[in-house]
């Protein structure tokens, strides 16, 4: 499964200006946020509770196959190098997103790109990586016998044509890996992303007052054009050319998906950033 760089309509992108200023802060979780890891019914709903439970589950679980994850990373880059592609970087936040999904699949005995609540790889990336600006995302998922070797894991992934396209996607720059074992099976998740930039400071999970957005775009042919914040249904909440957002743009019941808009010649593209909510 691959989600490609999206174009965005310039007039809408420039329609609304944000006001006031404040610097972004490191992600902190409220003291009263639910933190117990109870995967029987999946991760908690709501951004803060979701991230809190994911972090708790990753901290207490030891059912990950770290050696096989490293071998799969090496096999992927060897495959890309042989095909004339650039090697991928391994990004810790993508590892956490991949492991979170692998752990959930293992705990509840299913396989899929979305969890049973409908949250996909891009949601996990945007919830757990508080700085990413991604132009494209993809993922490979596989379930194998627990005695499968790293070579057999890579063979199973690369045998699928869609997975093969992800492995050799020229634009992907970063990857994350998660392999969890349960009930005699390995649940394998490989995330792949085009990281076109990062926010200078991690965006807090909860926006309080005004927050400054300072993007750093990697490719010098992109020019930052503005930003927008949308709800889960894609409805525009706020945006503008001044790189500042205010919590008034987010209803207390909503979650906001940050996109940074960049221009290349006459076209404007969307780089997907972190998800935020309001305190």
UniProtKB/TrEMBL annotation:
Coiled coil: none annotated. The lineage of its organism: Bacteria, Pseudomonadati, Pseudomonadota, Alphaproteobacteria, Hyphomonadales. Keywords: Signal. Gene3D superfamilies: CAP. It holds the Pfam family CAP. Residues 1-33 form the signal peptide. It comes from the Bacteria. This is CAP domain-containing protein. InterPro entries: CAP_dom, CAP_sf. It comes from Henriciella barbarensis. Residues 74-190 form the SCP domain.
